Amino acid sequence: MTGVSPLSNHPTIGFVILSHRDPAQLLRLVGALNRLYDDPPIACHHDSAQCPIDKGAFPGNVRFVEPSIRTGWAKWSVVRGFFAALRLLYDHAAPDWFVLMSASDYPIRRAEAVRADLAALGADALIDYRQIGDTVESAAARFGPRNPELDQFESNANRRLKRSHYEGAEIWLPMLRFNDGGRRVRPGRFTIHLPFATPFRPFSRDFPCFYGDHWFTGNMRVARLLLNPTPQHLKLQKHLTMRSCPDECYFQTVLCNEPGLKLVRDNHRYAQWNGGGAHPQLLTDADLDAIRASNAHFARKFAQGAPVLDRIDAMLFD
What residue ranges carry the coiled-coil annotation (predicted)? Predict the structure, then answer.
């Protein structure tokens, strides 16, 4: 993957935020971004079906996707929500860079330091990735160093799981799911994973499958690519629509297979997985020293009103 020159020495940055609960937490995040980045363009997809939100409480630089898409964890609907927010961002602004965040993320580096990093790296995207079948050593040799906080993706169990999610054959059986403590019933499916690859997968020697952490930063060139999918990208979308965790495969596969893009594997996000699990652990005051010592631009996940956020505000704004 060959490189391109930085867009500028003082790049403009916009934000795409995915949210589905805790409007107060989203509002606090927006306030921090506005103070750091001088009221940047922000596009938010908030799933109003999961949690109502008063959009009038937010400053004018924040735009919301309307109507919102009903999203679900590890489902293609999350990718759809991102596409809608990214398009909204670039329909009304033209930032050199966009940052994909959740409402439980928070900035941990001053804006001037983030801009300096983006200019110095000369990259098109900061995105965590590895190819299906790679070992830790082969990925490092081919693509360079990764974010050290994302050991979660390097375990043998995770590698087997991702191969099954994205390349494996599956059978789906109908079932009923009970939500909201059994008060709501909806149709669902039970997935049986088969021990061989599906012959209908869109991947090939010339278009291999990549995966990694969902959260990334990209420049305008990356935004244009994602908003204008090729026939091959549309085939990949169709394949991932019914697959688990498509948000940890689609962006990596599209960007890693695009000639001429320079990708930095360190996505500059701090998270503490503590050895595994489906979600990173909630960060607390005990993580503050490690957050300060990291080279990350943003961190996740934080609980609403977590005291450590006040400590981070003091670090950023005092």
Answer: none
Is residue 221 within 8 A of residue 124, CB to CB? The reply is yes
Reported residue count of the chain is 318
Strands 125-126 and 168-179: unpaired
Task: Pull the structure tokens for residue 85.
Answer: 């927010």
d(Cα 131, Cα 129) in Å, to the nearest integer?
7
The side-by-side arrangement of strands in the sheet containing 13-19 is 62-64, 42-46, 13-19, 97-102, 217-219, 125-126, 263-264
The pTM of this model reads 0.92
State the amino acid at position 71 in one-letter form. Answer: T
What three-state secondary structure class fits 125? strand
> Residue 239 sits in which domain range?
13-147+204-317
Number of domains present in the structure of the chain:
2
- Say whether both 52 and 107 belong to one domain: yes
Whether 77 is in a domain gets the answer: yes
Query: Is residue 269 assigned to a domain?
Result: yes
Could you tell me if 263 and 299 lie in one domain? yes
Residue 300 lies in a domain: yes
Nearest partner of 308 among 19, 112, 104, 31, judged by Cα: 104
182 and 104 in a common domain: no
Residue 7 within a domain = no
Residues 6+ apart with CB under 8 A from 215: 100, 101, 102, 105, 267, 269, 298, 300
